[in-house]
Amino acid sequence: MELLIKGSTEIALLPYSDFESIIGDPYQRTEQNIIDQFNSTDYKPQVIFLGLDERSKDGMTYKSHSGAPYFAIDLTPRKSVIQACEALIVTLESRGLSFSKSRMELSLPAQDAAIYAEARHMLDWNLRNPFCASCGFPTLSTNAGWKRTCPPKDLAGAVNDASKTEREPCATRGTISNLSFPRTDPTVIMAVVSADAQRILLGRQRRWPPYWYSTLAGFLEPAESVEEAVRREVWEESGIKLGRVVIHSTQPWPYPANLMIGAIGQAIPDGETIDLGNDPELDDAKWYTMDVLREALQNGTSGLGEDAPPGYKKGNLRLPPPTAIANRLMTAVADGFVSSGARM
Ligand SMILES: [Zn+2]
Protein backbone atom coordinates (compact mmCIF):
# COMPACT_ATOMS: atom_id res chain seq x y z
CA MET A 1 0.00 0.00 0.00
CA GLU A 2 1.51 3.27 -1.10
CA LEU A 3 1.00 6.57 0.67
CA LEU A 4 0.43 9.87 -1.16
CA ILE A 5 3.12 12.26 0.03
CA LYS A 6 4.29 15.83 -0.48
CA GLY A 7 8.08 15.92 -0.32
CA SER A 8 9.70 13.12 1.67
CA THR A 9 8.47 13.95 5.17
CA GLU A 10 4.90 15.16 4.81
CA ILE A 11 1.69 13.33 3.92
CA ALA A 12 -0.42 14.99 1.21
CA LEU A 13 -3.79 16.28 2.42
CA LEU A 14 -6.24 17.06 -0.38
CA PRO A 15 -9.83 18.40 -0.46
CA TYR A 16 -12.92 16.27 -1.18
CA SER A 17 -13.35 18.02 -4.57
CA ASP A 18 -10.28 16.13 -5.87
CA PHE A 19 -12.02 12.79 -5.23
CA GLU A 20 -15.69 13.58 -5.77
CA SER A 21 -15.74 12.10 -9.28
CA ILE A 22 -14.47 8.77 -7.92
CA ILE A 23 -16.26 8.32 -4.60
CA GLY A 24 -19.37 10.46 -5.14
CA ASP A 25 -21.02 11.25 -1.81
CA PRO A 26 -20.66 8.05 0.22
CA TYR A 27 -22.75 9.51 3.07
CA GLN A 28 -25.70 10.73 1.05
CA ARG A 29 -27.87 7.71 1.84
CA THR A 30 -28.61 6.24 5.26
CA GLU A 31 -26.63 3.19 6.26
CA GLN A 32 -29.79 1.10 6.46
CA ASN A 33 -30.61 2.08 2.87
CA ILE A 34 -27.09 1.15 1.73
CA ILE A 35 -27.41 -2.27 3.43
CA ASP A 36 -30.92 -2.81 1.91
CA GLN A 37 -29.64 -1.92 -1.59
CA PHE A 38 -26.46 -4.03 -1.34
CA ASN A 39 -25.26 -5.37 -4.69
CA SER A 40 -22.10 -7.46 -4.50
CA THR A 41 -21.17 -6.64 -8.11
CA ASP A 42 -21.00 -2.86 -7.42
CA TYR A 43 -17.53 -1.60 -6.70
CA LYS A 44 -16.85 1.52 -4.66
CA PRO A 45 -13.35 2.58 -3.57
CA GLN A 46 -12.95 2.08 0.17
CA VAL A 47 -13.35 5.30 2.19
CA ILE A 48 -12.40 5.48 5.88
CA PHE A 49 -13.37 8.27 8.26
CA LEU A 50 -10.21 8.83 10.31
CA GLY A 51 -11.47 11.46 12.75
CA LEU A 52 -11.94 15.17 13.31
CA ASP A 53 -9.05 17.60 13.77
CA GLU A 54 -10.61 19.86 16.40
CA ARG A 55 -7.86 22.48 16.05
CA SER A 56 -9.14 23.34 12.59
CA LYS A 57 -11.64 26.23 12.52
CA ASP A 58 -12.94 25.83 8.96
CA GLY A 59 -14.37 22.36 9.06
CA MET A 60 -17.75 21.02 10.05
CA THR A 61 -19.82 20.73 13.20
CA TYR A 62 -21.39 17.53 14.45
CA LYS A 63 -23.31 17.74 17.75
CA SER A 64 -20.83 19.34 20.16
CA HIS A 65 -17.77 18.61 18.01
CA SER A 66 -16.31 20.78 15.29
CA GLY A 67 -13.20 20.57 13.17
CA ALA A 68 -11.83 19.29 9.90
CA PRO A 69 -12.78 15.69 9.09
CA TYR A 70 -9.98 13.49 7.68
CA PHE A 71 -10.57 10.55 5.39
CA ALA A 72 -8.43 7.88 3.76
CA ILE A 73 -9.34 6.67 0.26
CA ASP A 74 -8.07 3.61 -1.59
CA LEU A 75 -7.09 4.88 -5.07
CA THR A 76 -5.95 1.52 -6.41
CA PRO A 77 -7.33 1.33 -9.98
CA ARG A 78 -9.88 -1.52 -9.79
CA LYS A 79 -13.02 -2.68 -11.57
CA SER A 80 -15.39 0.20 -12.48
CA VAL A 81 -12.96 2.95 -11.43
CA ILE A 82 -9.78 1.77 -13.18
CA GLN A 83 -9.68 4.65 -15.65
CA ALA A 84 -10.89 7.32 -13.21
CA CYS A 85 -8.28 6.34 -10.61
CA GLU A 86 -5.48 6.13 -13.18
CA ALA A 87 -6.38 9.60 -14.47
CA LEU A 88 -6.51 11.05 -10.95
CA ILE A 89 -3.12 9.54 -10.08
CA VAL A 90 -1.59 11.20 -13.17
CA THR A 91 -3.17 14.54 -12.17
CA LEU A 92 -1.87 14.31 -8.60
CA GLU A 93 1.63 13.39 -9.77
CA SER A 94 1.62 16.32 -12.20
CA ARG A 95 1.07 18.57 -9.16
CA GLY A 96 4.35 17.37 -7.63
CA LEU A 97 2.83 14.78 -5.28
CA SER A 98 4.05 11.21 -5.28
CA PHE A 99 3.23 7.80 -3.86
CA SER A 100 5.82 6.61 -1.36
CA LYS A 101 7.37 3.27 -2.26
CA SER A 102 8.72 2.82 1.24
CA ARG A 103 7.06 0.19 3.42
CA MET A 104 7.64 2.06 6.65
CA GLU A 105 7.34 5.78 7.07
CA LEU A 106 9.78 6.44 9.88
CA SER A 107 10.69 9.92 8.60
CA LEU A 108 7.18 11.34 9.04
CA PRO A 109 6.49 13.70 11.97
CA ALA A 110 4.62 11.97 14.81
CA GLN A 111 1.19 13.38 13.92
CA ASP A 112 1.45 12.43 10.23
CA ALA A 113 2.77 9.01 11.20
CA ALA A 114 -0.24 8.48 13.48
CA ILE A 115 -2.69 9.45 10.71
CA TYR A 116 -0.90 7.17 8.24
CA ALA A 117 -0.80 4.25 10.68
CA GLU A 118 -4.56 4.49 11.27
CA ALA A 119 -5.35 4.85 7.55
CA ARG A 120 -3.11 1.98 6.56
CA HIS A 121 -4.39 -0.35 9.26
CA MET A 122 -8.04 0.36 8.39
CA LEU A 123 -7.68 0.17 4.59
CA ASP A 124 -5.69 -3.01 4.88
CA TRP A 125 -8.23 -4.68 7.17
CA ASN A 126 -11.12 -3.82 4.83
CA LEU A 127 -9.24 -5.08 1.77
CA ARG A 128 -8.39 -8.37 3.47
CA ASN A 129 -11.93 -9.06 4.65
CA PRO A 130 -14.23 -8.89 1.60
CA PHE A 131 -16.10 -12.05 2.65
CA CYS A 132 -18.08 -13.01 5.72
CA ALA A 133 -16.07 -15.31 8.02
CA SER A 134 -19.28 -17.12 8.96
CA CYS A 135 -21.20 -17.72 5.68
CA GLY A 136 -18.52 -16.91 3.10
CA PHE A 137 -20.57 -14.39 1.10
CA PRO A 138 -19.42 -10.83 0.26
CA THR A 139 -19.59 -8.23 3.05
CA LEU A 140 -20.20 -4.49 2.96
CA SER A 141 -18.10 -1.76 4.58
CA THR A 142 -20.23 0.14 7.12
CA ASN A 143 -19.79 2.69 9.92
CA ALA A 144 -17.53 4.84 7.73
CA GLY A 145 -15.12 1.95 7.17
CA TRP A 146 -14.85 0.79 10.80
CA LYS A 147 -17.02 -2.32 10.53
CA ARG A 148 -18.08 -4.84 7.91
CA THR A 149 -21.54 -6.29 7.79
CA CYS A 150 -23.07 -9.31 6.06
CA PRO A 151 -26.22 -7.90 4.38
CA PRO A 152 -29.36 -10.11 4.34
CA LYS A 153 -30.01 -9.37 0.66
CA ASP A 154 -27.85 -9.13 -2.47
CA LEU A 155 -29.44 -7.41 -5.48
CA ALA A 156 -26.94 -9.22 -7.72
CA GLY A 157 -28.75 -12.42 -6.80
CA ALA A 158 -28.23 -14.99 -4.07
CA VAL A 159 -25.34 -17.35 -4.71
CA ASN A 160 -27.42 -20.52 -4.95
CA ASP A 161 -30.36 -19.01 -6.80
CA ALA A 162 -29.85 -15.96 -9.03
CA SER A 163 -33.59 -15.32 -9.19
CA LYS A 164 -33.69 -14.53 -5.46
CA THR A 165 -32.07 -11.64 -3.66
CA GLU A 166 -32.56 -13.00 -0.12
CA ARG A 167 -29.43 -14.63 1.17
CA GLU A 168 -29.23 -17.67 3.40
CA PRO A 169 -29.42 -16.93 7.15
CA CYS A 170 -26.06 -15.94 8.65
CA ALA A 171 -25.09 -16.17 12.31
CA THR A 172 -23.41 -12.77 12.16
CA ARG A 173 -26.76 -11.04 11.62
CA GLY A 174 -28.14 -11.83 15.07
CA THR A 175 -27.37 -10.67 18.60
CA ILE A 176 -24.21 -8.75 19.40
CA SER A 177 -21.99 -10.53 16.86
CA ASN A 178 -23.81 -8.88 13.96
CA LEU A 179 -20.72 -7.13 12.62
CA SER A 180 -17.06 -7.81 12.22
CA PHE A 181 -14.56 -5.35 13.63
CA PRO A 182 -10.99 -4.44 12.66
CA ARG A 183 -8.48 -6.73 14.28
CA THR A 184 -5.30 -5.80 16.07
CA ASP A 185 -2.64 -8.47 16.52
CA PRO A 186 -0.68 -8.10 19.76
CA THR A 187 3.06 -8.65 19.46
CA VAL A 188 5.57 -8.67 22.28
CA ILE A 189 9.00 -7.09 21.93
CA MET A 190 11.38 -7.23 24.83
CA ALA A 191 14.73 -6.07 26.12
CA VAL A 192 16.21 -8.87 28.19
CA VAL A 193 18.76 -8.13 30.90
CA SER A 194 20.94 -10.50 32.86
CA ALA A 195 20.13 -11.41 36.46
CA ASP A 196 22.57 -8.74 37.71
CA ALA A 197 21.17 -6.20 35.18
CA GLN A 198 24.70 -5.52 33.86
CA ARG A 199 24.24 -7.08 30.39
CA ILE A 200 21.60 -7.06 27.67
CA LEU A 201 20.64 -9.95 25.37
CA LEU A 202 20.33 -9.06 21.68
CA GLY A 203 19.55 -11.27 18.71
CA ARG A 204 19.90 -11.03 14.95
CA GLN A 205 17.93 -12.37 12.00
CA ARG A 206 19.69 -13.81 8.96
CA ARG A 207 18.45 -11.13 6.56
CA TRP A 208 19.84 -8.23 8.60
CA PRO A 209 23.08 -6.40 7.63
CA PRO A 210 26.34 -7.50 9.30
CA TYR A 211 26.76 -6.56 13.01
CA TRP A 212 23.06 -5.59 13.24
CA TYR A 213 21.26 -6.81 16.38
CA SER A 214 18.01 -5.93 18.10
CA THR A 215 15.64 -7.01 20.84
CA LEU A 216 13.70 -10.26 20.51
CA ALA A 217 10.01 -10.22 19.50
CA GLY A 218 7.09 -12.50 18.70
CA PHE A 219 3.30 -12.87 18.53
CA LEU A 220 1.11 -13.25 21.57
CA GLU A 221 -0.76 -16.57 21.49
CA PRO A 222 -4.48 -16.89 22.28
CA ALA A 223 -5.24 -16.96 26.02
CA GLU A 224 -1.68 -15.97 26.92
CA SER A 225 -0.78 -13.02 29.16
CA VAL A 226 1.77 -10.49 27.90
CA GLU A 227 4.22 -11.61 30.60
CA GLU A 228 3.83 -15.28 29.63
CA ALA A 229 4.32 -14.44 25.95
CA VAL A 230 7.54 -12.57 26.74
CA ARG A 231 8.92 -15.49 28.78
CA ARG A 232 7.91 -18.08 26.16
CA GLU A 233 9.28 -16.16 23.16
CA VAL A 234 12.59 -15.44 24.90
CA TRP A 235 12.98 -19.08 25.90
CA GLU A 236 12.04 -20.35 22.39
CA GLU A 237 14.39 -18.01 20.54
CA SER A 238 17.35 -17.84 22.93
CA GLY A 239 16.97 -20.48 25.64
CA ILE A 240 17.11 -17.75 28.32
CA LYS A 241 14.74 -18.20 31.28
CA LEU A 242 13.13 -15.01 32.57
CA GLY A 243 11.87 -14.11 36.02
CA ARG A 244 10.42 -10.65 36.29
CA VAL A 245 8.77 -9.02 33.27
CA VAL A 246 7.35 -5.47 33.17
CA ILE A 247 5.58 -3.67 30.35
CA HIS A 248 7.47 -0.52 29.40
CA SER A 249 5.69 1.08 26.41
CA THR A 250 3.76 0.20 23.25
CA GLN A 251 3.81 1.15 19.57
CA PRO A 252 1.20 0.54 16.84
CA TRP A 253 2.78 -1.12 13.83
CA PRO A 254 0.27 -1.41 10.97
CA TYR A 255 2.11 -4.12 8.95
CA PRO A 256 -0.62 -5.14 8.72
CA ALA A 257 -2.25 -4.85 12.13
CA ASN A 258 0.23 -5.19 14.96
CA LEU A 259 0.39 -3.52 18.31
CA MET A 260 3.90 -3.96 19.66
CA ILE A 261 3.89 -4.30 23.43
CA GLY A 262 7.35 -3.38 24.69
CA ALA A 263 8.56 -5.14 27.82
CA ILE A 264 11.72 -5.51 29.85
CA GLY A 265 12.53 -8.93 31.24
CA GLN A 266 15.19 -10.06 33.69
CA ALA A 267 16.86 -13.46 33.47
CA ILE A 268 16.93 -15.72 36.51
CA PRO A 269 20.50 -16.42 37.79
CA ASP A 270 20.74 -19.98 36.46
CA GLY A 271 18.82 -19.23 33.24
CA GLU A 272 21.39 -17.18 31.33
CA THR A 273 22.79 -19.83 29.00
CA ILE A 274 22.04 -19.10 25.36
CA ASP A 275 20.56 -21.99 23.37
CA LEU A 276 19.36 -21.32 19.80
CA GLY A 277 18.23 -24.93 19.33
CA ASN A 278 14.59 -24.59 20.45
CA ASP A 279 13.49 -22.49 17.48
CA PRO A 280 15.73 -21.83 14.44
CA GLU A 281 14.44 -18.26 14.08
CA LEU A 282 17.57 -16.34 15.10
CA ASP A 283 20.91 -16.35 13.34
CA ASP A 284 22.66 -15.42 16.57
CA ALA A 285 22.03 -14.11 20.09
CA LYS A 286 24.59 -12.62 22.44
CA TRP A 287 24.96 -10.89 25.78
CA TYR A 288 26.40 -7.37 25.52
CA THR A 289 27.74 -5.15 28.30
CA MET A 290 26.06 -1.84 29.03
CA ASP A 291 29.16 0.00 27.73
CA VAL A 292 28.91 -1.68 24.32
CA LEU A 293 25.15 -0.99 24.27
CA ARG A 294 25.64 2.72 25.10
CA GLU A 295 28.34 3.11 22.43
CA ALA A 296 26.01 1.52 19.82
CA LEU A 297 23.04 3.70 20.86
CA GLN A 298 25.35 6.70 20.42
CA ASN A 299 27.05 5.83 17.14
CA GLY A 300 25.46 2.76 15.58
CA THR A 301 21.74 3.44 15.02
CA SER A 302 20.01 3.77 11.63
CA GLY A 303 17.02 2.49 9.66
CA LEU A 304 17.38 -1.09 8.40
CA GLY A 305 18.01 -0.20 4.75
CA GLU A 306 20.23 2.80 5.56
CA ASP A 307 23.98 3.18 5.84
CA ALA A 308 25.56 3.27 9.29
CA PRO A 309 25.90 6.83 10.70
CA PRO A 310 29.20 8.78 10.31
CA GLY A 311 30.53 8.01 13.82
CA TYR A 312 30.16 4.25 13.35
CA LYS A 313 33.31 2.06 13.39
CA LYS A 314 33.07 -1.06 11.21
CA GLY A 315 32.70 -4.19 13.28
CA ASN A 316 30.89 -2.45 16.12
CA LEU A 317 27.30 -3.23 17.06
CA ARG A 318 24.54 -1.69 14.90
CA LEU A 319 21.01 -1.04 16.24
CA PRO A 320 17.56 0.23 15.09
CA PRO A 321 16.82 4.00 15.16
CA PRO A 322 15.11 5.97 17.98
CA THR A 323 11.77 5.83 16.10
CA ALA A 324 11.64 2.06 16.74
CA ILE A 325 10.33 0.76 20.04
CA ALA A 326 13.30 -1.67 20.18
CA ASN A 327 15.59 1.35 20.50
CA ARG A 328 13.41 2.85 23.27
CA LEU A 329 13.59 -0.37 25.27
CA MET A 330 17.37 -0.63 24.87
CA THR A 331 17.75 3.04 25.81
CA ALA A 332 15.65 2.47 28.95
CA VAL A 333 17.94 -0.41 29.94
CA ALA A 334 21.09 1.64 29.18
CA ASP A 335 19.69 4.46 31.33
CA GLY A 336 19.34 2.13 34.29
CA PHE A 337 15.67 1.13 34.14
CA VAL A 338 16.54 -2.09 35.94
CA SER A 339 19.91 -1.54 37.62
CA SER A 340 19.02 1.79 39.27
CA GLY A 341 16.64 -0.09 41.50
CA ALA A 342 13.47 0.68 39.56
CA ARG A 343 10.85 -1.72 40.87
CA MET A 344 10.36 -4.40 38.25
ZN1 LIG B 1 -22.46 -13.92 6.65
In short:
The protein is of the alpha+beta class and 344 residues long.
Q: Any ligands, ions or cofactors bound here, and which? A: zinc ion
Overall, the morphology is globular
**Class per helix and strand makeup:** alpha+beta
- Unreliable residue stretches: none
Mean pLDDT reading: 91
Total strand segments: 13
Q: State the helicity in percent bands.
A: 10-25%
Tally of alpha and pi helices: 7
Enzyme class: hydrolase
Family: Belongs to the Nudix hydrolase family. NudC subfamily.
InterPro entries: NAD-cap_RNA_hydrolase_NudC, NADH_PPase-like_N, NudC-like_C, NUDIX_hydrolase-like_dom_sf, NUDIX_hydrolase_CS, NUDIX_hydrolase_dom
Catalytic activity: a 5'-end NAD(+)-phospho-ribonucleoside in mRNA + H2O = a 5'-end phospho-adenosine-phospho-ribonucleoside in mRNA + beta-nicotinamide D-ribonucleotide + 2 H(+)
Can you describe this structure?
Belongs to the Nudix hydrolase family. NudC subfamily. One of its GO terms (molecular function) is metal ion binding. Its EC number is 3.6.1.22. It holds the Pfam family NUDIX. This is NAD(+) diphosphatase. By secondary structure, the chain is α+β, with helices and mostly antiparallel strands. The chain has two domains: 3-177, no CATH class; 185-334, Nucleoside Triphosphate Pyrophosphohydrolase (Alpha-Beta Complex). Helices cover 22% and strands 23% of the residues. It contains seven helices and 13 strands. It has helices at 20-23, 31-36, 82-94, 110-128, 226-238, 290-299, 325-334; strands at residues 3-5, 47-53, 60-62, 65-73, 98-100, 140-142, 147-149, 185-193, 199-204, 216-219, 242-253, 258-267, 284-289. The strands form four sheets. Strands 8, 9, 10, 11, 12 and 13 form a six-stranded mixed sheet that branches. It has a three-stranded antiparallel sheet with strand order 2-4-3. A hairpin with a 5-residue loop joins strand 8 (185-193) and strand 9. Helix 6 packs across helix 7 (325-334). The protein is globular. 25% of the residues are buried. The site of zinc ion has 7 residues, from loops.
